[in-house]
C-alpha cells in the first residue's frame, strides 16, 4: 500500500515535471526498476572490489614468503644468490660453517711478548684443559678403583672433547693396558700416561714450510666461509714480515668487498702489498695479477686468499682448481702449499670439510683455528690420526702471536700444563 502511494506521488511529480499524465505511472514504475537495478549493480561492484583487494594482500604476503624461501641471501654479502643457481644444474650446496664466536673475550695480551708464547698457547687451550683434565681429575676423585665404569666415563670425557670415536677407543684401550703404572691418588700420573698416548698419535713434530727452488713461496689458502682464512693470512703475513720477509697478498675472495678490505687492514699492519680487484670480479684475474706482482717485486712469500663460498660445492672446487692452474702458469710449481683452514669449534664437521677439499684440490697442510674458543681441542688428535695431511698451524686466539706452528710436544705439554 505504502509503495502504491509512493508510486502515485512519484507519478504526480513526473506529470508536474512535464510527463504526459497518462504515462506518469508507467514512467514512475520504470524509474523505480531502473533505480533498483542500478543500486544492485553498484552493490555487486562494491563487493567484487573488496574481494579483489583481499586477494591482492594475500598475494603480496605469499610473494614475500616465497621470496624468503627461494632467494637465500648471503648473510655476509647481502647478495641474493639466485641468478647463478638458475644457470647450474642441481648440485650439492657447500656446507657453511657457522661462525662461532668464542664465548670469552680475545686474549688480553698485546702482541709484544708480555707472556711467553707457551703461556699464550696454554691460555688458548684453557677450555679444553678444564673440560678434559678437570673432568678426569674429578673422575679419579670419585672412583676408588680403575674399573669398567671408570673407563666408560673416561671414554665419554674423550668423546666430549672431540677426540673422535676412533682415537677415543684407541686411547682407552692403550690406557687400560697402562693403568697399573698409575697411582690412583696421583692425578699427575694419569695425565702423564694419557699425554704420552696422545703424543704417540700425533704424527708430526713441527712442520716447516716447503722451500721453492726459485721465486716466492706461494701459499693458497682455502676453506669454507667463516673458518678464519683471512685472519690466518693476516697473522701469517705479519709473522713472515717480522722475520724480514717481503710479502704480497692476493685478495682472491672477490665475493664481497669487505673481504678485500679486511685483507688490506692486515696488509697495512704487516707492510705487505695487497693485490685486489673490485667486488664480484674474477678471482682468477686477482691471482694472475698477484702472482705477477710477487715476481716483479721479488717477494719472498705470496699468500692467496680465496672465497669460502660459491653457489655450489662443485663451483667452489672448480674455481679453486682454476686458481691453482693460473698461479702455476705464472710461478711454475706453485702453489707450494695449499693450506686448508678448519675451525676447531665445528668439531667433527671439520673432518668432513677436510675430506671434501682433499678430494678436489690436493690440500698439503691444515691450519686449525679458534682452539681457544672451544673445549673440544681433541679435534687436533682426531684430525692428526684420521687424515694424512699435517696440521701446520693452530690458532689459539685473535692476536698475531696466537697463530702458532703446530708442535705436537708443545701441544701436549700445554694441554696438561698446570695453571
Ligand atoms: N678466537 C679466535 N677467533 C678467530 C681465530 N681465527 C679467526 N678468528 C675469528 O673468526 C672470524 C672469521 O674469520 P675470517 O678470517 O673472516 O674467516 P674467513 O671467512 O674464512 O676469511 C673472525 O671474527 C676472526 O677474528 C682464532 O684462532 N681464535
Ligand atoms: Mg675471508
Structural class: alpha/beta
Q: Which ions and ligands are bound to the chains?
A: guanosine-5'-diphosphate, magnesium ion
Count of alpha and pi helical runs: 15
Q: Helical percent range?
A: 40-55%
Straight-line N-to-C gap: 107 Å
Largest sheet data: 8 strands, mixed
The backbone outline, from C-alpha atoms, is elongated
* Gyration radius from CA atoms, angstroms: 36 Å
Strand content: 5-15%
Which regions contain 5 or more consecutive residues with pLDDT less than 50?
54-112
Total E-strand runs: 8
Order of helices and strands: HHHHHHHHEHEHEHEHEHEHEEH
What value does the average pLDDT take? 82
Identify the strand order in the major beta sheet: 3-2-4-1-5-6-7-8
Would you summarize the structure shown here?
By secondary structure, the chain is an alpha/beta fold. Helix content is 54%, strand content 10%.
Amino acid at each position: 500500500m505504502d509503495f502504491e502511494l509512493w508510486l502515485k506521488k512519484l507519478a504526480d511529480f513526473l506529470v508536474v515535471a512535464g510527463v504526459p499524465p497518462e504515462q506518469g505511472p508507467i514512467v514512475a514504475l520504470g524509474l523505480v526498476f531502473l533505480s533498483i537495478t542500478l543500486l544492485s549493480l553498484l552493490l555487486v561492484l562494491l563487493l567484487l572490489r573488496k574481494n579483489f583487494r583481499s586477494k591482492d594482500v594475500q598475494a603480496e604476503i605469499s610473494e614475500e614468503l616465497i621470496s624468503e624461501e627461494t632467494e637465500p641471501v648471503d648473510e655476509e654479502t647481502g647478495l641474493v644468490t639466485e641468478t647463478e643457481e638458475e644457470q647450474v644444474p642441481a648440485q650439492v650446496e657447500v656446507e657453511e660453517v657457522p661462525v662461532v664466536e668464542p664465548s670469552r673475550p680475545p686474549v688480553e695480551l698485546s702482541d709484544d711478548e708480555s707472556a711467553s708464547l707457551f703461556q699464550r698457547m696454554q691460555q688458548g687451550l684453557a677450555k679444553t684443559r678444564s673440560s678434559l683434565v678437570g673432568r678426569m681429575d674429578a673422575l679419579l676423585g670419585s672412583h676408588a678403583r680403575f674399573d669398567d665404569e671408570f673407563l666408560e666415563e673416561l671414554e665419554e670425557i674423550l668423546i666430549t672433547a672431540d677426540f673422535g670415536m676412533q682415537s677415543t677407543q684407541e686411547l682407552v684401550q692403550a690406557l687400560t693396558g697402562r693403568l697399573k703404572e698409575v697411582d690412583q691418588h696421583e692425578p699427575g700420573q694419569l695425565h702423564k700416561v694419557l699425554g704420552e698416548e696422545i703424543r704417540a698419535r700425533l704424527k708430526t713434530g713441527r712442520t716447516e714450510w716447503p722451500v721453492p727452488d726459485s721465486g716466492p713461496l706461494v701459499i693458497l689458502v682455502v676453506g669454507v666461509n667463516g673458518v678464519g682464512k683471512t685472519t690466518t693470512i693476516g697473522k701469517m703475513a705479519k709473522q713472515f714480515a717480522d722475520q724480514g720477509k717481503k710479502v704480497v697478498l692476493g685478495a682472491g675472495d672477490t665475493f664481497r668487498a669487505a673481504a678485500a678490505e679486511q685483507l688490506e687492514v692486515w696488509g697495512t699492519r704487516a707492510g705487505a702489498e695487497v693485490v685486489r680487484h673490485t667486488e664480484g670480479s674474477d678471482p682468477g684475474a686477482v691471482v694472475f695479477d698477484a702472482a705477477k706482482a710477487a715476481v716483479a717485486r721479488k717477494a719472498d712469500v705470496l699468500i692467496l686468499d680465496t672465497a669460502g663460498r660459491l653457489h655450489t660445492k662443485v663451483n667452489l672446487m672448480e674455481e679453486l682448481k682454476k686458481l691453482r692452474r693460473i698461479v702455476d702458469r705464472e710461478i711454475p710449481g706453485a702453489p707450494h702449499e695449499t693450506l686448508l683452514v678448519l675451525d676447531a669449534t665445528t668439531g667433527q664437521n671439520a673432518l668432513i670439510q677436510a675430506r671434501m677439499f682433499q678430494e678436489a684440490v690436493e690440500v698439503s697442510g691444515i691450519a686449525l683455528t679458534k682452539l681457544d674458543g672451544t673445549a673440544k681441542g681433541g679435534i687436533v688428535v682426531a684430525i692428526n690420526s684420521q687424515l694424512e695431511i699435517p696440521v701446520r698451524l693452530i690458532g689459539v686466539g685473535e692476536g698475531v702471536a696466537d697463530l702458532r706452528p703446530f708442535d705436537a710436544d708443545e701441544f701436549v705439554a700445554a694441554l696438561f700444563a698446570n695453571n
